[in-house]
Design a protein that fits this description.
With 203 residues, the protein is mostly beta strands. The protein folds into 2 domains: 74 residues, Alpha-Beta Plaits (2-Layer Sandwich), CATH 3.30.70.1200; 117 residues, Alpha-Beta Plaits, CATH 3.30.70.1210. 15% of the residues lie in helices and 42% in strands. The protein is built from 3 helices and 11 strands. Strands 1, 2, 3, 4 and 5 form a 5-stranded antiparallel sheet that branches. Strands 9-10-6-11 form a 4-stranded antiparallel sheet, sandwiched between helices.
């Protein structure tokens, strides 16, 4: 696994879906394969240069354009994560739940995905992601943001928004292998919008 620091030279916050497409340019050999990276904008919502943390299974390569790799990607092994160890964690996620669609939608068992707003439910959502994997000792909601995005589909523009939550706290590992799998796969939906990247720091 590789970790990279990138910057995107932009005078204003970038459409997060467009940013995902820009990051693809760092992996010219992947073509249309399944995404093998997660990312997080560290200064989300701020004007100016966008600082991005990138986690990828393949080594990224410099590309022409606005996105710049700041340093040589760092190759990381996760075998240092062990049962019983405690770490500080940071995660930006898109906590959601499914509810019955009052509009009569018939797909997905007639349910739609909606953001979780209640703070207690937001924390409960996080606990479910780590069930039997890690024990959340401390957690705080560092910030909550609405991300607006635009997708171009042919001649149509689809505009939408997602609710993101940035969690920080302390966890103790219960099942290291499962936790590593979570880190590789990402946590929750909206990974194409900069959600799901879990980072740990030793205490």
């Amino acid at each position: 696994m590789y970790y990279s620091q990138c910057v995107l030279n932009s005078i204003k916050p970038v459409n997060p879906y467009l940013l995902h497409k820009i990051i693809w340019q760092l992996f010219p050999d992947q073509g249309d394969e399944k995404r093998s990276f997660l990312f997080r904008v560290e200064n989300l919502g701020q004007n100016g240069v966008q600082h991005i943390l990138l986690q990828s299974s393949d080594e990224p390569h410099p590309a022409n354009g606005e996105l710049v790799l700041l340093n040589t990607p760092k190759k990381v092994q996760f075998n240092g994560i062990i049962n019983g160890a405690s770490y500080r964690f940071l995660l930006r996620a898109n906590p959601t739940k499914r509810i019955k669609d009052s509009g009569g939608k018939t797909t997905n068992q007639g349910k739609v995905r909606v953001p979780i707003i209640d703070e207690d439910e937001i924390i409960a959502w996080l606990s479910r992601q780590f069930e039997s994997i890690a024990d959340i000792k401390e957690v705080s909601l560092a910030r909550q943001d609405l991300l607006y995005f635009r997708k171009d589909k042919g001649n149509q523009n689809h505009v939408g928004k997602i609710q993101t939550v940035t969690y920080s706290g302390i966890l103790t590992v219960i099942e290291a292998k499962s936790l590593v799998n979570k880190m590789i796969e990402g946590i929750g939906p909206a990974k194409a919008f900069g959600c799901g990247l879990l980072t740990l720091a030793k205490i």
